[in-house]
Write a structure and sequence with these properties.
The protein is α/β, with parallel strands linked by helices. It has 2 helices and 5 strands, in the order βββαβαβ. The chain has a 5-stranded mixed beta sheet with strand order 3-2-1-4-5, with helices on one face. The longest helix is centred in the last third of the chain and has 13 residues, at about 55-65. The radius of gyration is 11 Å and the shape is globular. The two termini are about 15 Å apart.
Length: about 80
């Protein structure tokens, strides 16, 4: 599944590290929310390594919802 033109996916590594575009560490959730809300995107693509646990994904989805992102497409892949 591809993201809409101009949008970046939010990446989650097997270790639980986040990246959004060139933003890594503690700011990717906020950066993703700003982009989604500013572009009135339909959804945010969340690409997670298949080693990421369900509890991590659930917490991340809650953090995204708190930031205003409520429509997320989850894509898993072994990295």
């Amino acid at each position: 599944m591809a993201t809409a033109e101009g949008e970046s996916p939010l990446f989650v590594s097997a270790e639980g590290n986040l990246a959004f575009g060139d933003v890594i560490g503690g700011g990717p959730i906020e950066a993703a929310a700003r982009e989604v809300l500013a572009n009135q995107a339909q959804k945010l693509e969340l690409r997670a390594d298949s080693g990421v646990g369900g509890a991590v994904i659930a917490a991340l989805l809650q953090d995204l919802a708190t930031a205003g992102v409520t429509n997320v497409a989850l894509v898993t892949a072994k990295q």
